[in-house]
Design the sequence.
C-alpha cells in the first residue's frame, strides 16, 4: 500500500482531523503520543502499517501503473524513487494552495486565507498586505490587487514601482515626488502649511516642471508662456519661442532682447543709473525706419523728408518729394527716396564739400515750365514770349504774340506797302463808281468815276507810302 493510503488509514483509525502538515513517517509516533489507545487489534494494525510503509517509497503514490511524487514533492532521482519537498509548488488539485517552506506545510497564494482552522479550503480576503510583495494590498475584487498611493503594478506581476508625478488617489492636487514615498504639490500649486497639512492652493507664475518656459496663469488650471515667449502652436502642444521686443508683464518699458532670455529697455528708452529705465530723445527707433524719439516721453518724430502714414495706427512713414529740409536752407527732397537736391532756382556750390547752394539766375524752373530765375534771388521771370497769368497766385504763364523789333522794320518796304495799298484802294473806289454810274447813279457817282486820273493814282500811292514810313518809324 502506498504512503497516501497509509495516511488515510491512520487517520481513520485515530480520527486525527484538520492536519495541514502530513508526515507519514512520523504519523504513528504522533498518534500514540496524542491518544492512549488499547493494544490488541489496534496494535496489530499499527504493526501492519509500519511494515507497509517500510516496503513502499516515501512521499510517493501510485497512479495506475505509475508511481508519482506526493503533492508538494518532486523527483530527485526517478530511478531510485527519491523525492524532495518543493516550496512554492502549486497543489495539484486545490486552487490557490502552494507548498510552504517547511516540508509538509501548505500556504495560500497572495490574497487568500484558509477558510477554516482545519483542511485546505481557502477564501479571498481584501486588504491583505504581503511581506514578499510590499506596497500592494488585495482589493475587493477576487484575484486583483491595489498598489499603494504613488505606486504602479508592473505588468501582471505583484511587483509595484514608485512613479513620480502620479496623482494621490485621495488628496487633490498632490503628486508623487522623485524620492520614494515623498509627495509634492501638483503643477501650479504650492503648500499652504506643510508638513502640518497637505492642503495646497493655486499659485500664478509657477514654472511647469515638464514644459520649459510655461508658467501657471492667473486662473486656476490656466497655463501661459513665460514672459518673452509665445506658443508656437497652442492647439498642438506647449512648445514656445522667444519673441524679441515683447513687453515685460511686470516692469514698464522693459522688453525682450534679441538674445533669448535677455531683456532690454523698450524702444526710445535706455538704461540709466542703478538699472533704471529712462526716456532718451533723438534716438532712432529700432522698430520703425526713419523715426526718432521726440523730446517728450513717448513722442516720436520723423526723419527729414519722411512723414507718418497714419500716426493713429502705427509709426510707419513714407517719403515726400520737394519738401524743404527743416535745418538746411534751400535744400529739398528729390523724387529718389533719401536724396536731397538744391531747391528750385539754386545749384550746388560744390556737392563734395557739403550742402552749400547758390542762387542761379537764368536757371529754368523745375516746377514751372517757361519760367526762369531772375537776377534777384527767389524771384522769377517768364521766358520770352510768355507772361504770368497771375504772379501773385502762382508762376504759371501763357504765350503772347511776338512783337516786331526795330531791326526787322524797313522804311522802304513799309513805303512800298503803303503805296500799293493806296493805289489798290483808289482803283477799288473808281471801279465801284463806274458800276454805280452805269446803273443810273448821278451826281457823286459820276464825279467819282470821272476823277480817276493818273495824278489821282499817284496821289493815293504817295499817301500810302507816307503812312507806311510813319508806321515803320513808330516801330
Sequence:
Amino acid at each position: 500500500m502506498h504512503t497516501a493510503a497509509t495516511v488515510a488509514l491512520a487517520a481513520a483509525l485515530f480520527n486525527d482531523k484538520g492536519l495541514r502538515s502530513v508526515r507519514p513517517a512520523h504519523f504513528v509516533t504522533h498518534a500514540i503520543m496524542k491518544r492512549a489507545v488499547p493494544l490488541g487489534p489496534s496494535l496489530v494494525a499499527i504493526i501492519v502499517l509500519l511494515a507497509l510503509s517500510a516496503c513502499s517509497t516515501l512521499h510517493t503514490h501510485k497512479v495506475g501503473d505509475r508511481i508519482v511524487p506526493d503533492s508538494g514533492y518532486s523527483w530527485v532521482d526517478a530511478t531510485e524513487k527519491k523525492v524532495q519537498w518543493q516550496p512554492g509548488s502549486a497543489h495539484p488539485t486545490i486552487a490557490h494552495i502552494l507548498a510552504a517552506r517547511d516540508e509538509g506545510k501548505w500556504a495560500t497564494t497572495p490574497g487568500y486565507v484558509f477558510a477554516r482552522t482545519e483542511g485546505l479550503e481557502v477564501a479571498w480576503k481584501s486588504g491583505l498586505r504581503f511581506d514578499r510583495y510590499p506596497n500592494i494590498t488585495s482589493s475587493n475584487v477576487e484575484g486583483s490587487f491595489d498598489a499603494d498611493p504613488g505606486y504602479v503594478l508592473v505588468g501582471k506581476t505583484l511587483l509595484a514601482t514608485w512613479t513620480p508625478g502620479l496623482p494621490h488617489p485621495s488628496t487633490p492636487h498632490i503628486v508623487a515626488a522623485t524620492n520614494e514615498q515623498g509627495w509634492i504639490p501638483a503643477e501650479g500649486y504650492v503648500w499652504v502649511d506643510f508638513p502640518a497639512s497637505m492642503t495646497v492652493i493655486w499659485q500664478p507664475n509657477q514654472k511647469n516642471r515638464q514644459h520649459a518656459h510655461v508658467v501657471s496663469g492667473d486662473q486656476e488650471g490656466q497655463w501661459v508662456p513665460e514672459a518673452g515667449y509665445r506658443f508656437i502652436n497652442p492647439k498642438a502642444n506647449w512648445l514656445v519661442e522667444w519673441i524679441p521686443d515683447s513687453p515685460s508683464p511686470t516692469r514698464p518699458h522693459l522688453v525682450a532682447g534679441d538674445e533669448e532670455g535677455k531683456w532690454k529697455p523698450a524702444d526710445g528708452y535706455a538704461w540709466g543709473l542703478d538699472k533704471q529705465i529712462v526716456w532718451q530723445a533723438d534716438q532712432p527707433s529700432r522698430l520703425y525706419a526713419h523715426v526718432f524719439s521726440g523730446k517728450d516721453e513717448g513722442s516720436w518724430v520723423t526723419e527729414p523728408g519722411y512723414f507718418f502714414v497714419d500716426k493713429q495706427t502705427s509709426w510707419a512713414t513714407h517719403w515726400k518729394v520737394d519738401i524743404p529740409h527743416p535745418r538746411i536752407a534751400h535744400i529739398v527732397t528729390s523724387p529718389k527716396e533719401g536724396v536731397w537736391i538744391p531747391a528750385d532756382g539754386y545749384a550746388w556750390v560744390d556737392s563734395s564739400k557739403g550742402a552749400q547752394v547758390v542762387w542761379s539766375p537764368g536757371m529754368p524752373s523745375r516746377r514751372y515750365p517757361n519760367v526762369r530765375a531772375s537776377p534777384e534771388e527767389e524771384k522769377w521771370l517768364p521766358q520770352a514770349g510768355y507772361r504770368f497769368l497771375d504772379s501773385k497766385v502762382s508762376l504759371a504763364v501763357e504765350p503772347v504774340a511776338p512783337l516786331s523789333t526795330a531791326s526787322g522794320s524797313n522804311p522802304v518796304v513799309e513805303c512800298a506797302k503803303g503805296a500799293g495799298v493806296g493805289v489798290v484802294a483808289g482803283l477799288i473806289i473808281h471801279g465801284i463808281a463806274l458800276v454805280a454810274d452805269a446803273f443810273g447813279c448821278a451826281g457823286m457817282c459820276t464825279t467819282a468815276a470821272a476823277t480817276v486820273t493818273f495824278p489821282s493814282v499817284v496821289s493815293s500811292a504817295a499817301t500810302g507810302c507816307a503812312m507806311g514810313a510813319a508806321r515803320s518809324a513808330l516801330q
